[in-house]
Structure formats: C-alpha cells, structure tokens
Amino acid sequence: MIYLGLVAYILSSLLIVSAQKITIKVVDTQAMPVEGMVVYLTPDNSPSMPLNPSTLVVTQKNKSFAPYVAVTQKGQSIAFENQDNITHHIYSVSGGNRFDFKIKSGHSKSTQQLNHAEEVAMGCNIHDWMSGYVLVVDTPYYTQTNNHGIATINLDLIGRYTLSVWHPQLDVKNYKIEQAIMVDSDVAGAQTFWQVSLPKDLLPLPEQIGQDEFEFLDEY
Questions:
Q1: How many folded domains does the chain comprise?
Q2: pLDDT digits (tens, 9 = 90+) for 129-176
Q3: What pLDDT digit, counting tens, does each position of 172-212 carry?
Q4: CATH number for the domain including 31?
Q5: CA distance linking residue 109 with residue 101, whole number of Å
Q6: Residue 34, in any domain of the structure
Q7: Are 43 and 157 contacting, i.e. CB atoms less than 8 angstroms apart?
Q8: How far apart are CA 194 and CA 178, in angstroms?
Q9: At which of 88, 113, 138 does a domain end?
Q10: 132 — phi, psi (to 5°)?
Q11: Which of 82, 114, 157, 198 could be stapled to 103 by a disulfide with Cβ–Cβ 3.0 to 4.6 Å?
Q12: Would you give the DSSP letter of residue 216?
C-alpha cells in the first residue's frame, strides 16, 4: 500500500504526455489588447524538453532592428539579415550571450549558440540609436501576442507550469510578470484560456532614428 501510494504521488506531480492547445490574452490597464508581448510557459517538473525548430531572424532595415522585441530558446542562434544599403556592426556585450560582428549590406550572419537563458540587449556600433531585445528562454513553449493580444501555444505535456509575460518596456522587476497555472487534459471543463492584465502600461518605445554624420568609413 505504501508503494502504491508513493507511485500515485509521483505520477500526480509529474507532467503527463498529452497534446494541448492553450490561449493567453494580454491586456493593459484599460483592458485593451497588447501586441508583441513575449509569452512563455515553463514546466515546473522539467523533463528533457525538445528544441523548438523555429529559427529567429532579426533584420536590419531602415537602420533599425526588426522586430524590436523577439524570443528564442536556449541552444538556438539568432540569424541577422542586413537589408540596408550600409554595413551594420551588431553587438551585445552584457550577460553570457555576447556577440560582436559586422554585416555588410545584403549579407546575413548568425550568432553562436545561445547557451544562457537571459535578456539579450542589442545595438549597432555605427548607428548608436539602434536598439533591440531578444529574450532567451529555457523552454520550447514560447510565442508573442498578436494585434488582438492573443498568444497561442501548443503543449506536448500537461501539468503545472509557470506562465511568464515579458517585455523590455514593462516597468516591473525583471520586466516580467508570472503566475502559476495548471494545464489539464483536453476534456470538457479543462481550462485552456488565461487572461493576463498588465499592472502598468508599457513605457514608450525608444525612437529608432538618428543623424547620419557620414556616408562612408574606410574600415567598413
């Protein structure tokens, strides 16, 4: 009886394999939908999770990063594509995912594998007004909200998760809010929708424009 009770307890606390589609809606202080928020789910009892196959591409266009905010999984790389008619010198010099390289017009370059789950702040040494952010997360279950504030994530596992909502303009500790959720099996009455209300409105986005004081530099 003790053995059977222990087995039941372990099974109840582990994630169970079962495909499940869940939806999260993010709204602001006026209950209006918020676009571009990073939303991700981290299982509390984390088995060996697969690598999300999607590749993050960040372009340089009109001397700005597009998208300004993005998300990828630890173990992936960021592919940069320069669509401008000038060289960019892309860098991120804080944290464990550092990179620093030049990309000529029409070229692309990928970072090394990102091995640290953290915020990656990006800039350009030539155009110092350029800024962008990539959040590296330790889970394959991530996305961003659409223009209706909706994020949809397909899960391979049911169980207990931490739901995180992140944005660099979110004026709270670590730029994110979190809550514990329970994802049940796909049966009648199981919860598949959560709404997250931001405690504060997002701060204004930085202006991605500047004065070009040159047309050509020898080293570029």
A1: 2
A2: 999 999 999 999 999 999 999 999 999 888 899 999 999 999 999 999
A3: 999 999 999 999 876 656 789 999 999 999 999 888 776 55
A4: 2.60.40.10
A5: 9
A6: yes
A7: yes
A8: 12
A9: 138
A10: -165, 165
A11: 82
A12: -
Residues 170 and 144 in one domain: yes
If asked whether residues 63 and 112 sit together in one domain, one would say yes
pLDDT above 70 coverage of the chain, percent: 84
**Residues 92 and 121 reside in one and the same domain:** yes
Question: Which residues, in sequence order, are CB contacts of 108 under 8 Å at separation 6+?
Answer: 79, 80, 81, 82
Characterize the bridge pairing of strands 38-43 and 176-183: unpaired
Distance of alpha carbon 52 from alpha carbon 27, whole angstroms = 26
The domain containing residue 94 runs over which residues? 57-138
Angle CA(60)–CA(143)–CA(55) in degrees, nearest 5? 50
One domain, residues 167 and 198: yes
Q: How far apart are CA 163 and CA 67, in angstroms?
A: 23
